[in-house]
Specification:
The protein is of the alpha/beta class. It is built from eight helices and twelve strands. It binds 1-O-pyrophosphono-5-O-phosphono-alpha-D-ribofuranose.
């Protein structure tokens, strides 16, 4: 009997794309082999029966929702999404990958106006940031390519994540204010954390084993 036979099945929600691919590399290093060739796959549920695991692939913003409602026991998701969605989940580990920063950005020659507008994919984070600063702004929700907004006069500033800084640079924008640092987190459903503690612990241990910088939260 292998050590995984006694564990309860664990469902893991992950965003499709880079976080999933990176996580698979780490899990492979920790001995978890996912048989499927997932490169061009459109499958949304990936069972890994040998390890009592199942991945569900979701939009990033939905990962905390699946975990809060318990249809996924754990999830891997960026801190930006956690701050924006404010779901009731446990944050277990800071995986220290996907590092970027949440910034206010705009044109270098930006001049504050009487009715300042801020465009962002993160209206919750932006509203809270400016509220805490005591600044009244109109927050405009966009779904991507936020850097366009100051270039075409929709908003003077944007709130967005910056990683390499290339997107800002290529669009003639500069970083104005640092809101917070962002990394990828392992989160857990509150009841799974208690009822499936061994399985949750086992997956957390696998990440801890292969990413030396991981922080326990
Ligand atoms: C993200 C983010 C920035 C860009 C930052 O966008 O919203 O636009 O990446 O990365 P950089 O600093 O390395 O250039 P994403 O690629 O997710 O696309 P989107 O604009 O369509 O949301």
């Amino acid at each position: 009997m292998s050590s995984t036979d006694s564990l309860q099945k664990l469902t893991i929600a992950m965003p499709k794309g880079r976080i999933f691919e990176e996580s698979l590399v780490f899990l492979k290093q920790a001995g978890v082999v996912v048989e499927d060739d997932l490169k061009d796959s459109r499958k949304l549920i990936i069972p890994v029966p040998d390890f009592q695991l199942e991945f569900i692939l979701a939009k990033p913003a939905d990962v905390p929702t699946y975990v809060e409602y318990g249809v996924a026991d754990v999830g891997v998701v960026g801190k930006d999404v956690l701050l924006e969605e404010e779901r009731d989940v446990y944050e277990l580990l800071d995986l220290q990958i996907g590092r970027c920063r949440m910034m206010v950005a705009g044109l270098e020659e930006y001049q504050p106006s009487a009715n300042p507008r801020v465009a962002t994919k993160y209206p919750g984070i932006a509203s809270k940031y400016f509220r805490l600063k005591g600044q009244q702004v109109e927050v405009i929700k966009l779904n991507g390519s936020v850097e366009l907004a100051p270039l075409i006069g929709l908003a003077e500033r944007i709130v967005d994540i910056v990683s390499t800084g290339q997107t800002l640079k290529e669009n003639g924008l500069v970083e104005l204010e640092h809101i917070c640092d962002i990394t990828t987190r392992l989160i857990a459903n509150r009841s799974s954390y208690r009822m499936k503690s061994e399985a949750v612990e086992s997956i957390a241990q696998k990440f801890l084993q292969v990413i030396p910088a991981v922080e326990i939260l």
